[in-house]
Amino acid sequence: MAEHSVENEGDNPETIKALKAIRIQFYLNSALVQLKANHPSDAIKSTSNALEIEGISDTDKAKAYYRRGQAYGKIKEDELAIEDLTKALELNPNDSGVINELNAAKNRQKLRREKERKAFSKMFS
After folding, report:
1. Which of 17, 43, 82, 96 could form an SS bridge with 71, CB 3.0 to 4.6 Å?
2. Distance from first CA to last CA of the chain, Å, rounded?
3. What is the spatial distance between Cα 112 and Cα 120, in angstroms, rounded to a whole number?
């Protein structure tokens, strides 16, 4: 999807602000649908687009990082998931959904590392 600036010379600043808010909600809602439809790569793109919009609120940033973290988890990119979920938690420290998803990503990463360690130890024994 090609990005177009919502700002035109002479536009009312309130109109520009409203259009940006609509775009942010569009991307965040798209990401939610894409996650539910099991299209994590598309959800990553949508949330990244939302995060690039100037003036995004901390609440919306937290949502975007949370949903992108979920998407990274679905494609087994747990390091990136942990990074985004940590940012979401910093912006919204009491969100149990973020905490649960972050703990799940950390557990998956830990299990994968243990599995890799066992595999490597068999190679060198």
Report:
1. 43
2. 52
3. 12
**CB 34, CB 74: distance < 8 Å:** no
Contact by Cβ (8 Å): 65, 28: no
Spatial neighbors of 55 by CB under 8 A, at least 6 apart, are 17, 20
Q: What is the pTM of this model?
A: 0.86
Residue 2 — pLDDT band, cuts 50, 70, 90?
very low
Summary mean pLDDT of the chain: 91
Q: Which amino acid is at 41?
A: S
Query: Which residue stretches of the chain are H helix?
Result: 13-36, 40-52, 58-74, 78-91, 96-123
Instruction: Of 19, 76, 30, 81, give the one whose Cα is nearest residue 53.
Output: 19
